[in-house]
Write a structure and sequence with these properties.
The protein is of the alpha+beta class and 293 residues long. The chain folds into 3 domains: 68 residues, Uridine Diphospho-n-acetylenolpyruvylglucosamine Reductase, domain 2 (2-Layer Sandwich), CATH 3.30.43.10; 122 residues, Uridine Diphospho-n-acetylenolpyruvylglucosamine Reductase, domain 3; 81 residues, Uridine Diphospho-n-acetylenolpyruvylglucosamine Reductase, domain 1. Helix content is 25%, strand content 28%. The strands form 7 sheets. Strands 6-7-15-11-12 form a 5-stranded antiparallel β-sheet. Strands 1-2-5-3 form a 4-stranded mixed β-sheet, covered by helices on one side. A hairpin with a 2-residue loop joins strand 9 and strand 10. It is globular. It starts with a strand and ends in a 7-residue tail after the last strand. The chain binds uridine-diphosphate-2(N-acetylglucosaminyl) butyric acid. The site of uridine-diphosphate-2(N-acetylglucosaminyl) butyric acid has 16 residues, from helix 5.
């Protein structure tokens, strides 16, 4: 069998440590395995969702009426230097492993991702960013499986990405090729350390969270607005607005998805009432209900 199927609770696979069990969980180890898993879902008319590192995600509890395809190492995690300044990477590779590879190979450009959780596929699918830089700017092409089950290559010019968003139209990323900048490995290492330190200073890295809850509205930090509303430390059950950074919700123990969702609505309402700004969710929410394709 080219992929593994078993029962899992997404609580174990998300950085929030919240989430129920999908009707089908598949962990493909190869592109052929991924193609087979998607074909099976199509044949069974079963909707599916792709899980990477589980780091930007809020999943409801209970039985989830869709298949979850886990694109994560081991499997789909190859790294190969394709030219002096390019590297081709499997979507399941954890971002941290890509950064270590790039540092050792003397390939600069991705240092801003230091200490970002998640996989390469997840980073590209959500156009992850920090310090004014975005992952998709560095991607020269993507290899994907289309919703019809065909392998396709998307060149940079055809990747539709914007702030924290990439339009994949149902395609699943299997590989990304990055165009990088050959540089002294020591300098790359120093920059990575600096970015990681800055991230750890600002964000509650050691706690259970899903990263920034809301996107930043144009020209302003959602965290600053939420902080000015006095929301740090506000709790619903075990879900709490981080006392370190107000755009993070942390799971202090056994938070339920419903606790997090209630807190999200309180945070949104507070910023709406105080500033007239409607915050947009950055964290993705996977509900436990029918018609979720
Ligand atoms: N601030 C407060 N109180 C808070 C949080 C922030 O006053 O509770 C202030 C800070 O002091 C600073 C300003 O707001 O003056 C901006 O804060 P920060 O540097 O933490 O950046 P951010 O705008 O909150 C963004 C991204 C982060 C990214 C950092 C670093 C979004 C939604 N957030 O955060 O990305 O890591 O910049 O570049 O775009 C994510 O996408 O999950 C994420 C965390």
């Amino acid at each position: 069998m080219p992929y593994m199927r078993k029962t899992v609770h997404l609580q174990q696979l998300t950085t929030f440590h919240i989430g129920g069990a999908p009707v089908r969980y598949v962990h493909p180890r190869t592109e052929a395995g991924l193609l087979a898993a998607l074909a099976e879902c199509r044949r069974a008319s079963l909707p599916w969702r792709v899980l990477g590192g589980g780091s930007n995600l809020l999943v409801d509890e209970g039985r989830l009426p869709y298949a979850v395809i886990h694109v994560h190492a081991p499997g789909l995690d190859t790294v190969e230097r394709t030219s002096e300044a390019s590297v081709r990477v499997g979507a399941g590779l954890p971002s941290g492993r890509l950064l270590t590879y790039c540092r050792d190979a003397g390939l600069g450009g991705l240092e801003f991702m230091a200490a970002l959780p998640g996989t390469v596929g997840g980073a590209v699918a959500g156009n992850a960013g920090a310090w004014g830089k975005e992952v998709c700017n560095m991607v020269s092409r993507l290899r994907v499986i289309t919703p019809e089950g065909k392998v396709a290559v998307i060149p940079h010019a055809e990747i539709e990405y914007s702030y924290r968003q990439t339009k994949l139209r149902g395609a699943v990323i299997t590989e990304a090729e990055f165009h990088l900048d050959p540089r002294d490995p020591r300098l790359i290492g120093l920059q990575m350390t600096e970015y990681a330190r800055a991230r750890c200073e600002r964000h509650p890295m050691s706690e259970r969270s899903a990263g920034c809850v809301f996107k930043n509205p144009p020209g302003v930090s959602a965290g600053k607005l939420l902080d000015e509303c006095g929301l740090k430390g506000l709790k619903m059950g075990d879900a709490e607005v981080s006392v370190h950074h107000a755009n993070f919700i942390v799971n202090r123990g056994k938070a339920a998805a419903a606790d997090v969702l209630r807190l999200i609505e309180v945070m949104r309402a507070a910023v709406r009432n105080a500033f007239g700004i409607e915050l947009e969710l950055e964290v993705r929410h996977w509900p436990a209900r029918a018609n979720v394709a």
